[in-house]
Design a protein that fits this description.
The protein is of the alpha/beta class. The chain contains 7 helices and 6 strands; from the N terminus they run ββαααβαβαβαβα. A hairpin with a 5-residue loop joins strand 1 and strand 2.
Length: about 210
């Protein structure tokens, strides 16, 4: 089993924690990771862009000049794409960019992302993370103690104080075990998880 250090909030190491190799110790699959990231980004797109084709632009009903006799090119409407103010040739229209991945593929991508963080030494586990009140200063102090910068924090249940304390810190994002996604794991330099969150992940994702 993979082992990582178990930290206290003051930055001291209190021991090791064993991680399930089925989740945190597999060989990462780059292709599946790429698919999961592309799917996440595609699903975030609004798909509301829209421009007008030549049939939708107002005006242009009259022929701008005679067909013959002027020595110039034939033109049927001033709303053709080559005219200023004309329509767009292949106009983008509202569409749904989202697509689905199989459950097994999504599960493999998540395990690959978690395993890559462990393999790179970029996953830190906190014995506990409890703040008596909402204080950004206290959360910054905890992050300074464990010496991390840009990080995704995976927290357990009933962590409202901790979530609100980290909300305004640049480069820090918090999420619950059920909301974790591959894109965020890959995007942030470090993955910080509480022992409670790790235990829950090993129950849910196995």
């Amino acid at each position: 089993m993979a082992n990582v250090d178990l930290y206290k909030m003051d930055g001291s190491v209190v021991g090791k924690i064993e991680l399930n190799d089925e989740i945190f110790g597999i060989q990462p699959n780059p292709h599946v990771l790429h698919q999961a990231v592309v799917q996440y980004l595609a699903n975030q797109r609004q798909g509301t862009k829209s421009t007008k084709t030549r049939a939708e632009v107002r005006g242009g009903g009259a022929k701008p000049r005679p067909q013959k006799g002027t020595g110039r090119s034939r033109q049927g409407t001033i709303r053709a794409p080559q005219w200023t103010g004309g329509g767009v040739v292949f106009a983008p229209k509202p569409r749904d960019f989202s697509f689905k991945l199989n459950k097994k593929v999504k599960r493999l991508a998540l395990k690959s992302a978690l395993s890559s963080k462990v393999a790179d030494g970029k996953m830190l586990v906190l014995e506990e993370l409890t703040l008596p009140e909402i204080k950004t200063k206290e959360m910054i102090k905890v992050l300074d103690n464990i010496k991390v910068g840009k990080a995704l924090m995976v927290l357990g249940d009933d962590c409202e104080n901790e979530v609100l304390s980290a909300r305004n810190i640049p480069g820090i994002k918090t999420c619950g075990v059920n909301n974790i996604n591959v894109y965020d794991i890959v995007k942030y330099d470090y993955l910080i998880a509480t022992k409670e969150a790790v235990d829950k992940m090993q129950e849910v994702y196995i």
